[in-house]
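Re: the 106-residue chain
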Amino acid sequence: MENTSSRKNKIYMKIYNVGSDVLLAACDAWLVGKTLHFGNVEFVVSKEFYADVLGDEEMLKKHLELATVGNLVGKIAVKCAIEMGLVNEENVIMLDGIPHAQFAIL
């Protein structure tokens, strides 16, 4: 993956290869470093986990096509996964009003 200089860059992505699985962690760029809450649970959108490459929706969709596991935070990132049929909207949880979804392709 490469950083792009487009002004459309709105999503951070990081790929992890774990055995035969490809985990894609992605979040809306402005969320990096934020701590979100779900009841008593704190969810940190850490730079270390999510932020490797800054891209746009088109780049995210290309990487979602290759992913077997996904961890997505933010309106843009989650919307892309819903549009691609990887996440059902009713399975999205809200963390302080921010959508979060995970998926696994078995």
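The radius of gyration is 13 Å.
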